[in-house]
Amino acid sequence: MSFIDRLFYLLGHSQDVGPRRYELDEHLQTVLEDLALQEQRPMEDVHADLISSALAHRHRSNILWDHWRSLSPREQDVTALTCQVCTNPQIAARLHISVETVKMHMRNTLVKFQLYSKSELRLISHNWGLGTLMDTLIEPKTGGWILLAGACSMNSTMLTAIAHLGERGAVRVLDGGNRFNAYTVARAAHGRPDILERITVSRAFTCYQMLSLLESTPAIPAPFVVLDLLNTFYDESVQAGERKRLLQACISHLHRLGQAAGGVVSIRPPAVPSQAALEMLDLLQSSAVDTFFVQMAAPAPEPMRLF
Amino acid sequence: MGRTLPSATQVFLQEQDSFARFRRALRRSDQLALDDLFTSARQHLAAAQYASHALPFEVFLLSMLLEEHKEVMRLRQQVDELISRQK
Amino acid sequence: MTETIYGWLFDVYPNETNLTLWLIGEDGKRYRFVQDFAAAVYAAGPERRAERVDEAPRLRELWKWLEAQEVPVRLSRTERRDVFQGMVTVLSAEVLQSARLDELFRKMVAAFPDLTYYDADISLPLRYAAAFNVFPLARCRLDVRGETVISIVPLDTPWELDPAPAPLRLLSLEPDCDPAHGEPKAITVAYERVRYSLPLEKTTPLLASLHHILGRYDPDLILTSWGDTWLMPFLMKICKESGTTLPLNRDENQAVVERKEHTYFSYGQIVYRGRQVQLRGRWHLDKHNAMLWNDYGLEGVLEMARVTRQPVQDAARLSPGTGISSMQFVTALQKGILIPWHKHQAETPKTAMDLLRADMGGMVYQPTIGLHRDVAGIDFVSMYPGIMVRFNISPEVPRAGTDLEPAPGEPGIVPMTLAPLLNKRLALKSALLTLHRWDCRRTTYQALVSAEKWLLVTCFGYLGYKNARFGRIEAHEAVTAYGREALLRAKEAAEDLDYEILHMYVDGLWVHKDGCKTPADFEALLADITERTGLPISLDGVYRWVVFLPSRVNERVPVPNRYFGVFQDGSIKVRGIECRRRDTPPFIAKTQMTIMEILAKAEDAEHLKEVYPKALAFVHMEMEALRAGRVPLEKLLVSQKLSRELCEYSSPSPAARAVRQLQEDGKVVRPGQRVRFLFTLGKPGVRAWDVPEPPDLRYVDVKRYQTLLKRAVETVLAPIGQSVNGGKDKECPYLFPVKNIKPLGEGGTQQLDVHNLSPDHSFRNAIQGGEH
User: Fold this and answer.
1) What is the pLDDT of residues A224-270, one digit of tens each?
2) Do the bridges between strand C2-14 and strand C139-145 make them parallel or antiparallel, or are there none, so unpaired?
3) Which residues of A touch C473 (CB under 8 A)?
4) Could you tell me the fold of the domain covering C169-219+221-281?
5) ipTM
6) Which of A97, A296, C441, C675 has the highest local Cβ count within 10 Å?
7) Does C402 lie at the interface with B, CB-CB under 8 angstroms?
8) pTM given for the model
9) Which CATH code for domain C364-576?
C-alpha cells in the first residue's frame, strides 16, 4: 500500500483493506531512518510530524476545495487564468469581458479565499494542483465526467492514475493525443500483467475518429479516461463549424458514458490559440461536472526529496 | 499515425537518466565503470524492444549481465591459453 | 456517322457540361472530343441497414431536398459495401452534368452535415479512368460521332512492360539562371532539333516567337525549369500587360489553371508545395516542381500517371501518397466498394499489454562495429508490400494470428490494388538483370522501377496514415509484426547454416561465413529463407568489405544506419554519413566519396593496407586546398531546410539566420524550403547565398570547414586505419587526433552543429558537463 493510500485510509476514505496493520514498507522505513538520523530525533517523532503536516496539507486542501466550490463560474475562470500567470488585459481578452469586470471577480475571489493578493492565490494553487489531481483521478465520481485542463506535463500523472485505477478494476482509455505511453503505466503498475490486461486503450487520430470511438464505447460500469480530447480538434484542415458539431456529438456520448461510470477527460491548450479553441473549451466546460485547471509546478531542483 | 510508445533508445535513455542521482554520488572511477555497463546494454536494444517487457529495465540488466558473461568467457579462455602455454 | 479512331488517351478534364477528352491519334493528329459522363455520390444515415423507406427518415429528407435542387440528379436507393461496416443502405445521387457534382455536394453537406458520405471527393478524371478502365497514354479505340465519344475501349493495361510509346511533341523552355538567385535574361527554347535563345527584355518579339512556335509546332508537353513558380506566371503577366494572348492551352474554351502555394505538415515534417500552373489540352511540367524528378525523370512521371491513372500534370506534382490513394480509389470504384469521405474507423480497444507488443516498427538491430570482409547483403524484395499481398493484409480482412499464414478469403482492397504493381516491378527488375548493359531499354526500365518503388514504399506508411480512407492501424501493426517475424526467421535460417549475423535492418541482413564469397555460395541460404517465410529474398551483393560505424559520441555504441562498403564489382554503398546528408557542403561530400573510391580500388580487404596511404595523401591535398582558399565557394555551400517560421525560433539556427538575411533582401522563404549559405567569421556566422552581392572570400570561416572536413574524413578513415594497424591499436598514422567531442563549458566553443545529431548527445553532455 502506498503512503498516499494509507493516508486516505487513515482519513476515513472507504477502502476495505482488511485488518489495520501499520507496517512500514522498506522504502519509507529507510527514508524515515535517514531523516531521524539527520534530525537527531527518534523515528516515531519524525513519523508523527510527517503525518500531521500531511494532514494539515489535506485539511488546507479541503478548505481550498470548499472555497473553490463557492466561486461562481466566471470567478473560477478568472482565478484559473490568474494562476496561469495571465495579466488582467489578457484575461479580459480571453473571456470577452472588460478589465474592470476581471478585477471585480478577482476581488470577490480573494475575499472568499481570505487572501490579500493575487500572488498568494498563485502560491496556494501551486501546491494544491498535484494533490487535488490525484484525489480526483483515484476516485472518479459516477454520474458525469470531470474535465482536467493543463499542460503537457500532466500526462505522466494521468498515466500513473490510470495504473492506480487499474488496480481496482477495468479502465477504458480513449487516447486522442497519441499519449498513452504504456511504459509509464507499466512502471506505475509495477509491471503487474493483471493490471496491464485490465486497462484497454483505443487511439483516435482525427476528430471524426474520436467521435466514432466514443460512439462505439459501451456505457458500462468501468471508469473511462479520455486523454487529450481536443488534440484532434485543433486540426485546422477541418472547418471550425464542423469541428464544433463533432465535439457536441462527442459530448453527448460522454454524457451517456458518464451515466454508468465515472470519467475523466483531459485537454491541453492549443499550440496556437484561436477563437475556435476557446469556444470548444467553453463547450466542454459547460458540460463537465467539474473543471480543474491544473498548473503543474516545475520539477524541483535536486535538494533532498522525501518521497 | 501510430508510434505511440517511445523507441527502444528513448526508453533506455530514460532508464539511464533515472539513475542520475545514484551515479552522481559514486566515485569518478566508479561512474566510468557504470557508464560502461550501460553502454554494454545498448548492444541489445533491438532484442529488448522485441521482448516488449512491461519493465524494460529488467531486460537491460539482463543485457548487461550477458555482456559481462561474454567478457568472463573470453577472459577464461585467455587464461586457459596462457596456462597451457606456460606448461 | 460513326467513325472509329485509334490513338493514345492524352488528357481528360471537365468542361461546363461534361468531359473533354484529348487523343493523340495514330495518324499523328491531335483530336479533341467531348463525352457525357455521370458521377454519383452516396449518403448513408445513422442506421446502417434500412429495410423500409420509413426506417431512414434523414435519407428521406435528403431525397426530397435533392429533388428540389436545380442541378439535375438521378436518385435511387441501393445497398453498397462499406469496407469497415459491411453492406450499407445508401441514397445514390447521380449527377449527369458531372462537372457540377462538387457544387451540389458542398450544398448537401451544409444542409445535412450529420450524414455519412461516400465517393464524394473523387476527381472526375479518376472516375472516368475507373469507369472505362483507361489511363493516361493508354492505347484506345474510340467510336465517335462528330465531336462526341460514343464508346472508348482500352487496348492495353498499365502493367505492360513495353507499351508502344506515344509520339509526344516536347517543347522545352529554360531560363538561363535560377530566378531565385538572380534575374534571368533569356530563355532557351528547344524542340526537335531546333534550339535558340530568346532574350526576355524585349517582350513583344518574345511573345511573337512563342506564339509562332506554339502554333506551328503545337507541342503536347511544355517542359520548363521553374515554370510553376516563375516562368509561366511571368509569361502570363507580360501577355496581360501587352494585351496579347499566348495559346498556352490548346483548349481555347478553358483558362490556364493556377494553384496557389501552400505549406503543410506530413509525418512531423514541414512540406512546402510551390504554386502551380497547369494547362488544358497540353501538359506543362516543371522539372523543379516535380516530385522526385531527379530520381526518375519524364519516363518515371509518365509511369506514375499510367499506374495511378492520375492526369500527367497532377501525377508529376503530387506525392506518391496521393498516387497510392488514387490507385485504391480506382480499385474501389471498379469493385463497387464505397469510398468514405472521411475516415471514421477508430482503433478497436487493445489492452496496455497488447499495445506494448504491437506498437513497434521494423526490427532494427545493433551492428557489430568495425570492418568486416566478404559480407553478403541480402534483402527481402519489397517486403512490406509483399507481406500485404501475400498474407492478405487489408483493413477489412480479419486476422487469425501472428503465424505467417495468409488470411483466408477474398483478397482485400489493399492487396488487390498492390498486386499488379508489385508484379510489374518484380518483372522489370528481373528483366533488368538479363538486359545487356547497353540495351536502350535499361534507362527506361530503371526509371519505371524507381517510380514504382516510390509508390510501393509509400503504401505501407499509407496503410497507417490517419486520413487514408482505407487505412487501419491494426493492419499497419500486422504488417510490421509479420516483418519482424520474417526477419527473425531469416536470422534463424542463417544461423542454422552457420552464418554469422553482422547486422539486420527491417527487411535486410548482413551475413558472413568463412569460405562464402561468390553469389552462388549464398543461394542455399536464400532458398531456405524463402521457404521458411514465404517471401522472396534476394542478394543485394557481396561486399569485399563493409564498415559499420559506431556513434559519434561513444565509439562502443553501435548505430544501425551508418555504414559504407564496397561490393565485389567495385561499386560503393554508403548510408548515413556526411556525403549522404543533404546539408553537407559538396566539397566535403566529394572528398569523403573520393576517399571511399580510393579505398574501393583495393581488390579485397587484404589490399587495403596498400591503398590507405594514397587515401591519406589525398586528404592532405584537400586540406591544403581548403586552407589555401582554392576551393570554389559553391562547393562550400550548406543547404538546410527551414523548420519553422522565423519568429518561432528561440535561438536561431544557422538556416534561420541565413533566411533573415534573405528576408532583408526582400526574398521570402517558407518553412519547409531549403536555404543555402556559407559559414563566415564573426556574427552572424552565416552568409546566405542567394543574395545579389557576391560574398567576400576573406570572411569564410575556414576553421569551421576544416573541422567539418576532418570529421568527415575521420568517419571513413578511422575504422580502416584501425584495421590496417591491427585491431584496437590507437596509434594510427593520423594527421590529427581521433577524439573530438568537447564537453560543454570547457573553454572554447562547443561545436554545436547539425552534424552531431545522436540520441545520446544531450545525456552525455549533461553528464560530462556536470563533471568538468
Assistant:
1) 999 999 999 988 888 889 999 999 999 999 999 988 888 899 998 87
2) antiparallel
3) 203
4) Nucleotidyltransferase; domain 5 (3.30.420)
5) 0.92
6) C675
7) no
8) 0.78
9) 3.90.1600.10
